[in-house]
């Protein structure tokens, strides 16, 4: 996400807007990208993101293959680069990659000559999540600029937070981060955000409240003393949300820890929470990404060769 | 085989130990420096077996690299005594000291003797050993400091690992007094550095990589200075990288503590931005710091707080570097880039040519108490002939080291070793040397 311009982001969001309508039809499938191949390469388990990409690919008419780590050669000791080279030799048009290490998707993208979509790399970036969050906000409020968005929770380890900060900042929103100091990465002020360690102050007059998932292993003692204390001071409940604007709404990238970072009542309140819309927008945004990355690739010529523009490789974006 | 009499004429003689910088000649006889100076051969052509016309190029003592990981025994696929020897000679290095992190660890006399024998057989660069300070570098039991010293070990260190336990270290410092041994520390508090991949700060936050705070080094240096003050043992900090740690060492030196330190070229020639888009070749321990620290390192070399520059040569193959950043090994090779990168300090006007050379010749030799790194009549003829100004581009493909993990590939530099002489034998001659 870092490095993408406002006009590029707008193009992606505008394209995705169109796919939202398509996805609401009874017949959801188009043959726009018939004959192209998409490989979902997930080195880290994720049912929802993988399913979302799979649906997005299928609705555009691509052949979609899911590579799961459990059955892949990586378990047999194959390196990331070897896996990339092997898959590359099969001529996929799009590789969707999720990896537990920051920068791994970037590394892989340097070794293949198809488009690569980052489906989350370590604590670095998760661009399609930021795009679907932006689309959700834009459809609800009608704009992204001049909004105040508070991102709350484990900022330090969150790729979702980083991508959202870059996108929202680029689009002219005012971004705040709210977290216990142990879950804030250093030099946060250099990201163009305001930093808070008090939910009430951080949420004051916000238009949007984005909650982040707190990983189980960080709950007990190492970063925060206990779940109970975390929920008390950093969990979102109706009381804390009351400090935001009256029509402010709540987002969460999922999966949620109810009673840890968010109160169950709020998560289920369809007036305040847009968590299910986020999932819907996810498919549309991923269709837009696949579409834009592959649309301009030449169709197979008379010789059967496909020209692939190396600059199309999306890298970490 | 003794090399007979060789005369090196028309050389710019540089001896950083004495400040000598004059045009003259060197006479080598039976592998030793017989005589040198402006006066030599003034009367006429020398009667020698061989004459080398240096044509105004610099002739200096061979470089002494006080911190090298050899990988032999144990990991010869990464580097061995032959390949490291070739790389060192190509970099103008005639003598080096290898860290104990071989397999097996250098913590016992037979391993020291093995390396000495292999170095003799290789007949290349002269190799000295560090021994581990604790058995197996485990940080618990002391090694045989007396016996190992007698076997010729130059100093004691747990290599790339800090000696963390304060009691162990203070005892080692006390015990080492009896043998006048030097102890070398890798100053990094491991609990703060745990899981860290690069310097903690804005760039690490942006890249989503966990950071190693500068305080990991500062705290360890400050603590160790207290421990060092409890004994008279010489204590040396390897590859210092932060302004505050250097300040602490500067102050301790003023107070007369027997402490010294070195740094590696990457800490003054690069900063953390060299990592850019997850370049694993710039992943090193301690990590590359920010620009402020880089400048502090330059200043500390210039004012003498940093005694020596060592390559910190750490060979790793492609397989351990071409990985996602968190999985890649730490380390940079440096034998062949030590001289040109050190000369950057001279070309950038931070110090004189002699001062820059001192940091890689007489000063590290003095720290390790080696009879090397200076032009002395009767001393072994370990010499380098180099052109301090010649521009060239570092090229990983042309390197002699078996591992190619350098972040300096394609860097334009100035200054090149053209001929390296050990005990009067010419062991390296650059293909393009005008000699």
From TrEMBL, chain B:
This is Dihydroorotase. It comes from Hwanghaeella grinnelliae. GO terms for molecular function: allantoinase activity; dihydroorotase activity; zinc ion binding. NCBIfam families: pyrC_multi (TIGR00857). One of its GO terms (cellular component) is cytoplasm. Keywords: Hydrolase, Metal-binding, Pyrimidine biosynthesis, Zinc. It comes from the Bacteria. Substrate binds at residues 101, 316, 330-331. The lineage of its organism: Bacteria, Pseudomonadati, Pseudomonadota, Alphaproteobacteria, Rhodospirillales. The keyword Hydrolase applies. Coiled coil: none annotated.
């Amino acid at each position: 996400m870092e490095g993408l311009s406002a006009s590029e982001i707008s193009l992606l969001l505008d394209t995705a807007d169109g796919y939202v309508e398509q996805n609401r039809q009874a017949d959801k499938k188009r043959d726009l990208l018939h004959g192209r191949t998409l490989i979902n390469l997930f080195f880290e388990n994720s049912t929802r993101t993988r399913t979302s990409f799979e649906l997005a690919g299928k609705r555009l008419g691509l052949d979609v293959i899911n590579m799961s780590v459990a059955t892949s050669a990586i378990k047999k000791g194959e390196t990331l680069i070897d896996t990339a080279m092997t898959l590359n030799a099969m001529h996929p048009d799009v590789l969707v990659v999720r990896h537990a290490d920051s920068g791994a998707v970037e590394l892989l993208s340097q070794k293949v000559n198809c488009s690569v979509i980052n489906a989350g790399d370590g604590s670095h970036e998760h661009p399609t999540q930021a795009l679907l969050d932006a689309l959700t906000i834009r459809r609800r409020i009608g704009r992204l600029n001049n909004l105040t968005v508070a991102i709350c929770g484990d900022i330090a380890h969150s790729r979702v937070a980083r991508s959202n900060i870059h996108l929202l900042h680029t689009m002219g929103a005012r971004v705040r981060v709210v977290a216990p100091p142990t879950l804030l990465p250093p030099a946060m002020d250099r990201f163009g955000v305001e930093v808070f360690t008090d939910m009430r102050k951080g949420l004051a007059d916000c238009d949007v409240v984005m909650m982040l998932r707190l990983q189980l292993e960080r709950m007990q003692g190492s970063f925060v003393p206990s779940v109970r204390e975390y929920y008390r001071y950093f969990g979102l409940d109706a009381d804390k949300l009351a400090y935001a604007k009256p029509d402010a709404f709540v987002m969460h990238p999922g999966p949620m820890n109810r009673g840890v970072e968010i109160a169950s009542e709020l998560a289920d309140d369809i007036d305040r929470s847009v968590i299910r819309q986020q999932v819907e927008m996810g498919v549309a945004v991923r269709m837009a990404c696949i579409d834009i990355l592959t649309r301009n690739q030449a169709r197979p010529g008379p010789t059967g060769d496909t020209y692939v523009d190396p600059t199309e490789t999306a890298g970490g974006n | 085989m003794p090399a007979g009499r060789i005369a090196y004429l028309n050389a710019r003689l540089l001896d950083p130990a004495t400040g000598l910088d004059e045009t003259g000649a060197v006479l080598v006889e039976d592998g030793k420096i017989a005589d040198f100076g402006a006066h030599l051969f003034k009367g006429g052509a020398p009667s020698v077996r061989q004459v080398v016309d240096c044509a105004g190029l610099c002739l200096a003592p061979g470089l002494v690299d006080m911190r090298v990981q050899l990988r032999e025994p144990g990991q010869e696929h990464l580097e061995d005594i032959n390949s490291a020897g070739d790389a060192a000679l190509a970099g103008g290095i005639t003598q080096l000291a290898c860290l104990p992190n071989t397999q097996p660890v250098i913590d016992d006399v037979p391993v020291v003797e093995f390396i000495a024998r292999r170095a003799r057989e290789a007949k290349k660069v002269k190799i000295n050993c560090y021994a581990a300070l604790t058995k197996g570098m485990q940080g618990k039991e002391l090694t045989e400091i007396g016996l190992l010293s007698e076997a010729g070990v130059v100093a004691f260190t747990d290599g790339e690992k800090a000696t963390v336990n304060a009691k162990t270290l203070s005892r080692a410092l006390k015990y080492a007094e009896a043998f006048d041994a030097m102890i070398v520390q890798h100053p990094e508090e491991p609990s703060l550095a745990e899981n860290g991949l690069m310097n903690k700060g804005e760039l690490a936050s942006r890249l989503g990589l966990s950071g190693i705070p500068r305080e990991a080094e500062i705290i360890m240096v400050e603590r160790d200075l207290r421990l060092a003050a409890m004994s008279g043992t010489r204590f040396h900090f390897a590859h210092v990288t932060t302004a505050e740690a250097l300040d602490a060492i500067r102050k301790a030196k003023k107070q007369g503590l027997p402490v010294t330190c070195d740094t590696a070229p990457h800490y003054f020639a690069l900063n953390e931005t060299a990592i850019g888009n997850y370049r694993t070749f710039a992943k090193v321990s301690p990590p590359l710091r920010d620009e402020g620290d880089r400048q502090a390192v330059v200043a500390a070399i210039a004012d003498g707080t940093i005694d020596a520059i060592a390559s910190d040569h750490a060979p790793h193959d492609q397989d351990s570097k071409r990985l996602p950043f968190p999985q890649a090994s730490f380390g940079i090779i440096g034998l062949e880039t030590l001289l040109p990168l050190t000369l950057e300090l001279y070309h950038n006007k931070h110090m004189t040519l002699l001062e820059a050379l001192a940091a890689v010749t007489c000063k590290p030799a003095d720290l390790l108490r080696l009879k090397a790194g200076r032009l002395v009549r009767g001393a072994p003829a370990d010499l380098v002939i180099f052109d301090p100004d010649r521009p060239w581009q570092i090229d990983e493909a042309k390197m002699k080291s078996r591992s190619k993990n350098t972040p300096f590939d394609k860097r334009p530099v100035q200054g090149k070793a053209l001929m390296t002489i050990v005990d009067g034998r010419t062991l390296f001659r650059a293909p393009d040397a005008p000699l």
